[in-house]
Amino acid sequence: MKIFELKKEQLLPIKMEEAWDFFSSPRNLKKITPSYMGFSITTKDLASKMYAGQIISYIVKPVLGIPLKWTTEITHVKDREYFVDEQRFGPYALWHHQHWFEETKEGVLMKDHVSYALPLGFLGRMANAIFVRKQLETIFEYRKKVTSEIFKTEPSLR
User: Which of 35, 118, 127, 149 would suit a FRET pair with 93, their CA atoms being 20 to 30 Å apart?
Assistant: First the structure.
């Protein structure tokens, strides 16, 4: 199984409390996901804040509008520092997403480290080369744009 990595950073000139309040709320996930993904949270009675052990279920439509069920678990949370989500069921053979938050003089530096693998061996690697990687890049670009609008900042993504 080939494991791919995607690393992104975004600086938001806001206070840690504001960044953490927004990003640690699973209810804000839809706001930072492109509409073409058909993203919908299906978990009933969704908590307002993430916590370790929390299970969140979604429907996503990443390819040709075909709905896929995706279930993640928030495996780790350290208040105002990081949280980790891992796929339990869904389109990936592996999905491990670390969200890091670091207070700087300029604001909050958000760091994302995604480790992922696709099923189907060679076909999965081909799919990654053809469209999966590009789609993930596009999703992070969208998040950069939307969060810059929400927090009234200039986009800054590395």
Answer: 35
